[in-house]
Amino acid sequence: MPITPRRDGRPRNVEIAYWMWIVAAVLLVLFGALLSTASTDAVREVWQKNGNDPDGFTAYMRMLRGIGIISLVVGLGVGFLARPVRYGDARFRRALVALSFVFALVGLGIVLIGIAPTVFIVVPLLLIAAGVVVFRPSANSWFTDEQ
Fold first, then answer.
1. Which band of pLDDT confidence, cut at 50, 70 and 90, is reported for residue 146?
2. Which of 76, 113, 116, 145 has the fewest beta carbons closer than 10 A?
């Protein structure tokens, strides 16, 4: 069944949140693809240059690939869930906001412990901002109308 708008007067907040989620989803997919396909030799070179123990490298690579795959899956999930939210589905809105906040915490954590580069902080900030914007009063009333 195709998703159709409930009415024409979609609040600007919903549009802004939608585009923030789309940008975050694209960044998550790109970041996930980069991490999950990173060259083992290049990562090993940086690992050794930083003076880390060579025995821990295998576990580190598994962790990087795991974070990459999770980022990729979350990015695809955010991208797919954003469309029904844009058209007024309150159930998807709650699910997407919950997913966004959980992964924003994970994203902040991986930046703070130094796994992800500092520029990755943009993704959790976009996810949090979109979750807050979509629950503004004007958007709330639009989602609760005609339910």
1. low
2. 113
Give the dihedral sign, CA 42/48/54/60.
negative
Tokens (6 digits) for 96: 């997407």
HEC readout, 27-94: HHHHHHHHHHCCCHHHHHHHHHHCCCCHHHHHHHHHHHHHHHHHHHHHHHHHHHHHHHHHCCCHHHHH
Q: How far apart are CA 100 and CA 129, in angstroms?
A: 10
- Evaluate whether residue 37 is within a structural domain: yes
CB 78 within 8 Å of CB 29? no
Angle at 46 between CA 44 and CA 47, to 5 degrees: 60
Q: What is the pTM of this model?
A: 0.86
Is 77 part of a structural domain of the chain? yes
Residue 93, domain extent: 12-144
pLDDT for position 1: 43
Cα 102 from Cα 120, distance rounded (Å): 16
Which pLDDT score is estimated for 116? 82
Place of tokens 């999930």: 77
